[in-house]
Each structure stands twice: as C-alpha cells, then as structure tokens.
Design brief:
Blueprint (H helix, E strand, L loop, with lengths): L24 H13 L6 H13 L4 E5 L2 H11 L7 E4 L6 H8 L3 E4 L11 H7 L4 E4 L11 H11 L2 E5 L7 E2 L2 E2 L6 E5 L12 E5 L2 H11 L23 H32 L5 E2 L7 E3 L4 E6 L9 H10 L16 H4 L12 H4 L11 H9 E5 L7 H16 L6
Parallel strand pairs: 2-3, 2-4, 4-5, 5-8
Antiparallel strand pairs: 1-9, 6-7, 6-11, 8-9, 10-12, 12-13
Helix pairs in contact: 1-8, 2-8, 3-4, 3-7, 8-13
C-alpha cells in the first residue's frame, strides 16, 4: 500500500461521490408548468405538498413556510411561548434551535446531549425544568430520532410543550410514527443542504386543528380562514412558500423513500465496519427507531487512541484520500459570540433581558458531552450515502489506511 495521499501517496479514491441536489424530469416538468401557468404564488401545489408531506410523517396538518428557522418561530408563537419563558434546547445543533427561542423573547436553556447518540439527554432535560419552563425542543440529530417516549413523558408530567426540531429527519420514524408527529409541533427544513430541498423552505406539522390555524395565520400576515383578505386578526408575518418551491418539493418527495432506504443500507454497512476500527465510535441506536434519515453520517474520532493525532489532521488526511468530510460544529451553541456577549457590551440585552428579570451568564454554561462531541465528531455528508455499496468500502479503506499509517501524521 502506498503512503498517505496527504504525503503524496495515491489516494484511495479518485472518482467523485454523488453530488447534491438530486433532481430530474419531475422537477423540470413541474417547474415549467407552474412557470407557464402564471400562478407562482400560494395555490394548489403548496396545498398538495402540505397534504402529502404531513401524511408522509403521519401527521394531520402541514403548514409550509420560508425556512426551518421561520418554522420554529411560527411554532413557538403558536404555542404561546413568549417573553421571559424558558425553553430547553440542546447545545449540539444549528443556531436556529436556540435563536428562534430568542426571537420570541424567550430564554434558551441548554441541556446536555448523550454522547452516544448526539441527541438531547432526557435526564438532563428533567434537571433543567423550572416553574418558568414552557417548552423543550429536541433535535433529531443527523436524522436519528431522540428518545421520544421519555421526552413526551417528561413534557406531559411537567405540562410543557414538546416541539420537535425535525430539520434533519425527513422520513425518520419512532416506533412506527413519523418524527414531527409526536410533539405538539414538528418543524422541517428544505434548505439547500437538506435531504429534500427547494433551495430554501420549511414546514410545520401538527395534529391539533387550533394550532394549525394559529401557525397558518402567523405565516400569512395574521389572516384567518374565510375572512376578508385585508382583515388581520393577530400579529403575523409573511412566511408563505411559492408554487415554484412546492413544485420542486413534490419532485423531491417522490424520491425520498427510496433515497432514505439506500442511505440506511449504506450507513448500516459503514456502521458495522467502522465499529471494528480502533479509535472510531459510531452512534448507538434505540430499538424504537424504526426508520431514520441520515442527514449526516456522524462518527467520533478518539484522538487519544490515534497516538494523539488531532481530529483536524485526520480530516485533512481523509479528505486527501478522496473522502469528503467535515469537523462539524466547532463549539456548542452557547460558545457563539451571540451568547457570550449576551447582556454585555453596547448591544446590551437583545430582546429578552427586561422580561426575564434575572441575570443569565452563558459563559458559565457547561455541557461536557456536547463539548466533547464538538472535539470528536466527524461528519460525512448525506450524498455520500447515495453511492453504491462498493463506494462505502472506499470510505472504510481510507480510514483504515490512515489508521495503519498514523505515524506519518505526527
Ligand atoms: C437547518 C436547520 C434548521 C433551520 O433550517 P433553515 O431552513 O436553514 O432555516 C434548524 N435546525 C436544525 C437542526 C437545522 O439543521
């Protein structure tokens, strides 16, 4: 075997992996139809997509919107989470999970994740509940459903709302039920990198008719059904999806089940093989996860078991072998400048402080599992999992090759 590609050896892989987005005649024809109809705005395709996607996730109602971030804000507003309320969120996530909470003048409270799943730890959630807690937002990280039995039980016992951030989990099922259907609301994103996409876009799912009406009203300027167009009943905004986006999403949805199956098969193979590689850990799966999306293939790199070679160096070496990968989040959400300067400096308190009536110091927050995950996680993008089984062999071979030549990286 030649030396590492990083040290001018031959890379394991020269062929490119599949690229994202995947699209075809479905999108092309539907887009052209919308274009030529002259009706580009909220109409029958949005309606059809909302019905089909809600059904796909086993939920009664779907309300499309402009992004996952906007969907989280719409859901929080409809759930009447507001000024001074506390909302429990995981620190290992995209910023929107926490920033949407700030947008409704509420306070994000971070509960640590479980290192073995990268998902919020129900035990940690329970410890963070106070008399001011109004909701919890679990993220089904990388598509792996959180322990929804425990979370639903905690939410029920403590009378708080369960809002699923399902922005990684199109098609995932917990005990046979789609993610987003178990909490009061579930939010999905269709941004460009996501497993189904219209460039930007989002949807909120719910089983409760009154919530569906409130979410619809919020995303449509405070209007209500069957009332005059220029009559506004509540404070809303414009988060409407276009017909062009819905046309794209109907095409994307037609491929989702097949792509999910392929990603699952390839990921199962990778997990089995990588479990055997010293210094690599793959996430644990719960028996009640009956289907799952892979928005990412996440594994942990244990530096101490690689002769102290840093993760950044491993990622350089893996990339050089022809395997696209990334280190993921550099730090937990609460280490972002947004939180570190919260309540300090010329910007003072953004929105929330005056309502909270309490000091809050995010610099003092510590979630050791999330911090460790940021140090150890390696992400492979989901489109890699759309390749053939033999291509998965290249990923394993590249990691094993680096392992066998780790001294070259010192
Ligand atoms: C992408 C994402 C969002 C937000 O979605 P946008 O459509 O980009 O606004 C929210 N939460 C998580 C976990 C995400 O990955």
């Amino acid at each position: 075997m030649s030396g590492l590609a990083l040290k001018s050896g031959n890379p394991i892989r020269k062929n490119p992996f599949p690229t994202w987005p995947v699209f075809g005649a479905e999108e092309r024809i539907a887009l052209l139809e919308v274009f030529e109809s002259g009706k580009w705005w909220y109409g029958e395709r949005v309606d059809e997509f909302e019905r089909k996607f809600a059904a796909f996730q086993d939920t009664r109602f779907g309300i499309t919107c402009t992004s996952g971030t906007a969907g989280l804000r719409a859901a929080l507003t409809a759930l009447r989470v507001g000024a001074g309320d506390e909302v429990i969120v995981p620190p290992y996530s995209f910023i929107a999970t926490a920033s949407a909470v700030l947008e409704v003048n509420a306070i994000p409270v971070f509960a640590d994740v479980d290192l073995e799943t990268a998902n919020i730890d129900p035990g940690a959630v329970e410890k963070k509940i106070t008399s001011r807690t109004k909701a919890v937002i679990p993220v089904h990280f990388a598509g792996l459903p959180c322990d929804l039995d425990s979370l639903a039980k905690i939410a029920g016992t403590n009378k708080i709302k369960l809002l699923e951030d399902a922005c990684h989990s199109w098609g995932s099922k917990w005990d046979g039920r789609g993610t987003g259907s178990i909490g009061e609301c579930g939010v999905f994103s269709f941004q460009m990198s996501k497993n189904m996409t219209s460039g930007e876009g989002g949807i909120v799912l719910t089983n409760e008719p009154e919530l569906a009406d409130r979410i619809r009203s919020f995303t449509n300027c405070g209007r209500v059904a069957n009332k005059p167009w220029y009559e506004h009943h509540s404070l809303g905004t414009n988060l409407r999806m276009t017909e062009l986006q819905a046309a794209l999403l109907l095409g994307q949805l037609s491929r989702l089940a097949g792509q999910t199956e392929r990603r699952q098969e390839n990921a199962a193979y990778l997990e089995d093989r990588l479990r055997e590689v010293p210094g690599i850990r793959v996430p644990r799966k719960h028996a009640k996860v009956t289907r799952r999306a892979y928005h990412l293939f996440l594994f942990r790199y244990i530096e101490e078991e690689w002769d102290g070679v840093q993760k950044a160096r491993f990622i350089e070496a893996l990339t050089a072998e022809g395997i696209p990968c990334s280190p993921g989040y550099p730090y937990p959400l609460y280490r972002n400048p947004l939180f570190l300067k919260w309540g300090r400096g010329p910007e003072g308190c953004p929105l929330t402080c005056p309502y909270y009536g309490k000091e809050i110091d995010y610099a003092a927050v510590s979630c050791p599992a999330a911090e460790r995950l940021c140090r150890e996680a390696v992400w492979l993008p989901h489109e890699l999992l759309l390749a053939e089984k033999k291509d998965m062999g290249d990923i394993v071979n590249a990691i094993v090759k680096i392992r066998n030549n780790v001294r070259e990286l010192k």
